[in-house]
Amino acid sequence: MLSLIDSVNPWLVAVGLNTVLLGLAWVAPKKLLTPAGLFHAWFLAILIWVTLGWRGYAVVMFYFLVGSGVTRIGMAQKEAEGIAEKRSGARGPENVWGSALTGALCALGVGMINSGFLVPSPQFLVPNTSATLSTSLQSLLLLGYVASFSTKLADTTASEVGKAYGKSTFLITTLQPVPRGTEGAVSLEGTLAGIVASVAIAFVGWGVGLIDLLGVAWCVLAAFIATNLESVIGATLQSKYTWLTNEVVNILNTLIGAIAAVLLAWTWTSIIK
Fold first, then answer.
1. 211, 212, 216, 218 alpha-carbon torsion, rounded to 10°
2. Is the pLDDT of residue 273 over 90?
3. Using CA atoms, how far apart are residues 71 and 91, in angstroms rounded to an integer?
């Protein structure tokens, strides 16, 4: 069945499938996306399917469904405390691209390699003489793709679980107790939940064949690094610069996660070679 899907024109499958899903989401009583968010997600989903096929699509859909689910954890309590996501968690265009821009760029890179539009430069590749230049760069981009969503799901889960169930929250830069929902605050409950989430989506990436088991480890470690750096940014810089919105911070967060995973893989391969 999957081989049959792979053999069909990807544009035809992508547009057809995602138009049907857009229609279902449009009439669904529980809105996970705003109307504008739906169309941006539709475009993103088509891009991912055309460049990475059903395998890349599975990863982004897992992120979207689980991320939307954890956003609604303890929603009534968080709304009462004024720390819930706006629009009761419904994602707009800014949320779609804040979460997925890094992953989309990685997917575009893979698509350009497969189409012959991108010829990699040897000095930036994993030093593995058994792989071609294109294969090496493609592997790094796929790792960055999965790592970006591992990072974002870890961040979303840690934040939402921490706001709902965090018994003690601390500012990451000073470790001083702060109210739940404070920018840069962390909690044990949220941190553990974030790690579990990053492991889960990394294993999805492995299960569909985008990364290997070592890549799972790089994704989880990169997600942990990036999520904590995001908290540092929130605690130190976000309130100082109006342009540093939550969406911009999300882009930085996922970009750090993707780069960290690629650097970890590149360094590891350099050492063991």
1. -90
2. no
3. 10
